[in-house]
Amino acid sequence: MPPRSTPTARQLRLGTELRRMREHAGLSIQEAADGLGINRTHITNLELARFGISEERVRALAAIYACPDSAYVDALAAMTHDRKGGWWDEYRGRIATGGLDLAELEHYATELRVAELIHVPGLLQTEQYARAVLGEAIPAWSPAELRRRLSHRLKRRDILDRDEPPPCTFIVHEAALRTRFGGRAVMLAQLESLLEASERANITLRVLPMDAGGFPVAGVSVTYAAGPVPQLDTVQLDTAHGAIFLDAESQLANHRGVLDAAERVSLPADATRTFISRIAQHM
Which pTM value belongs to this model? Predict the structure, then answer.
């Protein structure tokens, strides 16, 4: 099997978790290799996601490491089955890797918590609003590039229409509701779409009003994607330099606290719908 040239974020995460499990057991790379009867380079390559790994080998390593958390081991074993890729692979080499990794993260998440300051969250954007937001890129994209990125962004929304969609909480700052990307008509249609989305059983939409004062997600937009077990949760930060993915325990705990604090100063779901309706009436 040839080595991977560009492992996905999910493949890298599996390798990272194998390394963490080994280190938690207090074993060296050589000791892990000896236990499995392979050379140490192979262990290194597995932990760096340079090569794929089978479910059987994941469970064998977990046994060598004496990992007591069966749910965690089962979740890692399940990750080895994701070899066919997903719809986002058709965009590989055509848009930035961070966008592909975000789509993959959303696809496998068991729950999503998103906080946005200036934009309506991508999963809730209408086509015309998304086109206007993407059209603000500097340097400007070619028409073909803009179409690719728009197509990718709209395709991400499909997770909300699955038979069993993940529960999603979206915290949206009032500034995002008043910034007229695309003009008045586009923004009005976006607000109406938000009101419709807020009625879905799996969606909780909360507005963070300007008069709430300071808030902890003022710097960047945050997506917290829950995994099948808490150890596999992931935070994605959307920055001017691209997507950043975090999965260290302290980072996850910090961003759970950040989102909890943002929710505490946000309007409840019912008040949010009233708030958005009022903005739409005066748009």
Answer: 0.92
